[in-house]
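Why predict the complex rather than its parts? Because the way molecules touch one another can change local conformation, and only a joint prediction can capture that. The input here totals 596 residues.
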Amino acid sequence: MLRTTSTLVVAGAACALASWLFASSQFFALQASLVGVAVILAVSLNLINGITGQFSIGHGGFMGVGAYVGVVTSSLLTQFQLLPGAPQVVSDQLVLLIALATGGLAAGTMGFLVGLPSLRLKGDYLAIVTLGFGEIIRVAIQNTKEIASDELKLVQAQGIGAELAYRVTHLGRATGLSQIPQLTSFGMVWFWVFVVVMVTRRILGSPHGRALLAIREDEVAAEAMGVDTTGYKVRAFAVASFFAGVAGALFAHFQAIITPAQFDFVKSTEIVVFIVAGGLGSTSGAVVSAMALTLLPEVMRSLFGGFNVEQIRKPLFGLLLVVIMLTRPQGLFGTHELWDLGKRKKRPA
Amino acid sequence: MPETLGTREVKPPLLGVSGVEVRYGAIQALRGVSLSVGQGDVVALIGANGAGKTSTLRAVSGMLKPTAGTVQLAGQDITGQPAHTLVGKGMAHAPEGRGIFPNLTVLENLELGAYLRSDKAGIAQDLERMYGFFPVLRERQAQLAGTLSGGEQQMLAISRALMSRPKLLLLDEPSLGLAPQVTQTIFRILREVNAQGVSILLVEQNAHLALGLAHWAYVLETGAIVMEGTGQALLASDDVRKAYLGE
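Output of the joint prediction:
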């Protein structure tokens, strides 16, 4: 426990220092934040798809839940002085942390509720349910109302309960929410990258991790060993959804604009491509490939000048997936990890 | 009432199955199966393909929910309880087709067998016991289980089931697809395991082998028990010889 706390403190300090050092370069900060969010999404989805062996293609939906809940939270909280006398930066970061927590918890709860009935399903059926969930979230948000500033003023006068009710039902339809306070620094994003990687590693090193691997390998046999398979699948799903929600809330608070289209099926597929390319089951693979594939469009933009990369990104990802399946179906890392390289090779490949 | 051959030695009951029915949609796979396993017994279930042997085993181990009937383990009703809760009550199931974890090492497979146990010393002791039964598993302990031969995988599946220190071991077709010599080894070890106090409920197509090992055996036909008796008596029975021993 002490070791965990001290590593967290060191990582937090390092991230804060990096944020401060590179604060002058907006381009760098934005790219670093985008990459970090992609890594959190990939590592958390890998917990479901790679380690537990279930197939979810609704991670974008959970990210969306986190983003919207996080923004509603922060827009309510920024009106109040949470820490009287404290500098603005400190209270901003406190607001952000609360927004991340509520966004993550909302997504985690949603993951638990969706997982409870659907994780009794196997393979394709689970994929269909998660796909449907992502679409439901998107369509539900598109059918809320837009915020009208005069209406909002009236509601705000009625107290915080009324405003919460107003904001939850007014998520801005397809045009989304804008003017979100930019509270996220890329240091904060990478702090969460560190947390999700550490949590995944700790889970894997524990008996719980063994149980998850057993489910991936053979569900019937895992059940016969005394593993509560449904319980473990739901738990893994809830934990992964929590981190997807945190990633969404982080994303919203540096992007400043969120629309339902950002969390659609294409987003979910993108995350699946990350982990398939990296190697299902490998956390380091998820990290490396999420970084590389997020930066790829930027690299191409600088190589090909004004060429519109966004347009060819989707076909490029599709093509990439096909090439990987044909040439290296186990992905970049297979199930291996970077941190196992130094160790004596326990498993002959 | 099924025909009974020979007399059964009375032992304190461990497993009692009574009137169990199982349906797969419109198809009734088991039509009121009743059987019992006494403490220290080896009981075999023989029958043709599709007679309901595996369904019976799965209904006992909680992998299938019976539509009627009861299952009792050591006097406790366990009907329809989920499989993972029964491991702690002393039942271990080595499922059909071996069901080892192919991408984990042999040692990791065995450790997962002791998933519910926390007594490290006892686990280490049992690990040695398994390596004693099947020395080849010790040689291969760091190897991925998927790279083992069929026979070695079966040895691993049985050892893994035994790692939970069960009172009752359920085995589904341990001889399936194995060379006769390997099968001989496995059945020799099963006899030894039984001598150490583990009761065994065995489903087996190889009637000759199963009846040779079993204290008591049941013959299943289209979802119902048609005959029961001591292994030796069934081996000597004309009906059984014709139907299941190919004579």
